[in-house]
Amino acid sequence: MKQILLAKRYAKALFELALQEKVTPRVHSDMLLVADVMAENRELRRVMTNPLITASKKNSLMKSLFGNFLSPLSLKFIEILIRKGREQQLAEIAIQYNKLYLDFNNIAVVELVTAYPSDAALRAKITEIVAKNTDSTLQFKETTDPEIIGGFKLKIDDYLLDATISKIISNLHKEFDKNLYIKRY
Length: 185
Known about the structure:
This protein has two domains: 2-103, Orthogonal Bundle (Peroxidase, domain 1); 107-178. By secondary structure, it is an alpha+beta fold. The chain contains eight helices and four strands; from the N terminus they run H-H-H-H-H-H-E-H-E-E-E-H. The chain has helices at residues 2-20, 24-40, 42-49, 55-66, 72-83, 90-104, 120-133, 165-178; strands at 107-114, 137-144, 151-156, 159-164. Helix 1 (2-20) crosses helix 6 (90-104) and helix 2 (24-40) packs antiparallel against helix 6 (90-104).
């Protein structure tokens, strides 16, 4: 919990600085990249959390990795984090920044899970239904999961709609386990 609060503070500071310099979309794409790379690369996480590796080596590593891809503001921010000894929280700070950016721009992330790749008609129908209940712009994050058999899962913030066939089958199993038809005397 303490780490998340710390990450939120750093993310808010970066966001306010990006607002001042009018580069919030660029920093948003930078932080998406940083969060993805940190999530996927275990070795990078190990290097960044290793206390035996000096700050200058960590800075040179980050510049060599991200120098051509990140804005100067993002690179300077990462350099400050490393200098302050907060490089362990870099991934969480990037995630918190992206949440701030989405909230500020009134964008709702819609996570859609289907058994097969979804088509434009399904996305349009979901957009139509969700747009009635929210005034946010929708950003789709689609994944496929053959284990759900059919139907879809829709997640927006803390709301989850599970309309999958596997969920229906699971509910049927629970109902049959109750066995309401046995006479009890």
